[in-house]
Structure of CBM2 domain-containing protein:
Amino acid sequence: MPPIPPAARHRTRRVTSLAVSLVTGAAFAAVATGPASAAAGCEVDYTVQNQWNNGFTAAVSVTNLGDPVDGWTLEWDFTAGERVTNGWNGEFAGSGDHVSVGDAGWNAAIATGASVGFGFNASHGGAPELPESFTLNGTACTGDTGEPPGEEPPDEEEPPTTGEGRQVEELDRGLVSVHGSRGNLVSWRLLATDPEDVAFNVYRGSTLLNPQPLTEATSYLDGGASADARYTVRPVVGGQEAEASETSLALRDGYLDVPLDVPSGGSGYTYDANDASVGDLDGDGEYEIVLKWEPTNAKDNSQAGRTGPVLLDAYELGGERLWRIDLGRNIRAGAHYTQFQVYDFDGDGRSEVAAKTADGTVDGTGGVIGDAGADHRNGDGYILSGPEFLTMFDGRSGAELDSVDYVPGRGDVCDWGDCYGNRADRFLAGVAYLDGQRPSLIMARGYYTRSVIAAWDWRDGRFTRRWTFDSDDAGSEWAGQGNHQLSIADADGDGRDEVMYGSMAVDDDGGGMWSTGHGHGDAMHVGDLLPDRSGLEVFTITERTGGAAGAYVAEAATGDVVWRRPTASGEEGPGRGVAADVWPGNPGSEFWVAGGGVSGVYDAEGDRLGVRAPSSVNFVSWWDGDPLRELLDGTRIDEYGTGGDTRLLTGSGVASNNGTKSTPALSGDILGDWREEVVWRTEDNRALRIYSTPVPTELRMPTLMHDTQYRVAVAWQNTAYNQPPHPSFFIGDGMEPAPWPEVYTP
């Protein structure tokens, strides 16, 4: 199917863009005191966003066209008596007409081809005018690059290329030291890009701790060590020790607190730290956190009322806030409205952030998308008119990179199952490797009746729509089959991902793959749930009153139902369901649900196992040293047992999210070895608290974040009714050695 050209871009009106010729050999004042020996160049985009009687707001974007810059100062002269009154994302100075803006520290680095932005408010004496010229570190910004005398022009940078397998992040070791009663568990990533026979040496300071290189698990218990001890690890390949890793993060109390900048609330609401995701926003190999702030007056789609705006923040693990995006009054707050995706979509080594936006969204540099003054809310607080956008934001600065019309638009609200705005605004999002190598963005609308899924590629700084699936066009058997979440997997084993949408699946080319007809549900799990069967399986629950399949397992490739359990007569279907291997007494996964009169624990054939059901029906997590998964619910982790569960962790001073769903901000393999971390907000919202296991293991496997089914599951985890991630292979009792993913890094 040929790519569909993107819709028109929506940006604030620009006064102009400057593009003039470069002065060569200029001094880079913020980098060095001598003349620069490399080419330099820059382009400035100066935008007046708002203007009033005696003042205005401007946004400035600087694009570096030369060699990478680490530290910058942009200077210009006002021409009509303008004066800066306050600014953001930079250090402002100057005298009279002259303005000097330096980096704010966190945004000091500008890679070749990258941009950095800042904004300010200023006064004027009549109308603001365009500055005649700008300089970056003393170099005139002209839109061209020049070469120092006597040097050959550098080779033109090639666009990201594909390697063997699938594109993944170039991560560091994620080295952590988790203090517990037995000492420090030192834990690090085994990368899928490592040689399979790589071994490791562990150092406390300069002291080698292991007498022989470690060839099994990528963790080491340093018994009796101080909580403040610092560690590094060194890979050993062919008997040769390689470069040391970064120094360990110390989880002195078993957790790491990431301080948060709590936003001010508004009339009748404050903010809670809600769902989170991770991505390498700056390309340094370490994950940053993107956090959604939910106002306390957020609404379910079925509830009328206005809400405060939704905010997105980005944080380094040390707590430095990189940026804040305000989605604005025209994006309603609630679990079904904002699904944000954090991923390296273009393969440049840095993650972008994609989200649905609207008139009045303010990006991380202060730039406004669409009409800043528009208010499309109706009297009941619903937003049923006005433009809808899909925006890609720069992960480093939060700046808008591009915006297109959101597909599908709402059209006639009544087409989605009701006329007051409930079902029209049910959104899902994900990431899929539709071509088998590079990631695409999945954005969707609707699942109760009509379902529309759009696939987008982000390449060369622009959106291209790959395909659109519309149940109205596909046929009646596709209507009403979507869930409150989606999953992504290579369902048919052809190397390309499919969109698993509940009781239906859409193929990698946008065509309908299968539909079971069992309808909408609240939870779904996709993975190698039954390793004795070939391929992947889907376990889902459905809401239909008295339905024939309140819970069922189907083959991911065909939709053929393996087994099903009906909902009790007259009852609505189950509201929760889990598939995971939590008990060694049964091969493969166990299945259990809550509600709908479907009770008990089920095996691969759909038979009751005759053992007590686990104490929770929510998330699951690999926490201790064995391959069985543990129960994650609220602020605790438990190990299942037929005679009763065993508490492994009770989070201290933390809170879960999303009401009775009681989900963490994030759960996934984001640090250390293959086991999973859990991230909760503290009760006062002043930090995200990351817990990592203190328990040793004998199991060795590459980081789950290099299994792309698992990695994209971490990306879509924040979508609507959050669900835990599953890899593409079975992890559980009696498992085969973990496969080595075929991947490459940009």
